[in-house]
């Protein structure tokens, strides 16, 4: 029972830490007002990397051994642990899925950033069709909050490109 108590203490510390990571990942991001759409892709790549690392740790043999001992001892902490494991898995899947969908926009980021306003406008219909496809098919990215953030960043990039064009001309 002493070993079980020590393992339960460790699990409770991990649960607290993982909950904190999950809470922080859901907080509203504070970003510069002129970020372009590539920042959105980078955000989700970073988040995917973080949650995949966390999943790797949760699924490591060391943690599995502790979980097995606690299962044998019928520990009450396992219910919370399993719930958190599921939440981390969902967050990792969301990040991976969002990276996959946002990656389809990557081909537009260069022309959006470096083209003249006239050339840039040639890419807008295809870009908007791709954004629409993401909205219609993504199980995670199809919220008004996520779409607003993406469209704001696309607009920022278009404005920045036009400013640069005007200053150079």
From TrEMBL:
Residues 5-167 form the Dynein heavy chain tail domain. This is DYH5 protein. One of its GO terms (cellular component) is axonemal dynein complex. GO terms for molecular function: dynein intermediate chain binding; dynein light intermediate chain binding. The gene is Dnah5_1. GO terms for biological process: microtubule-based movement.
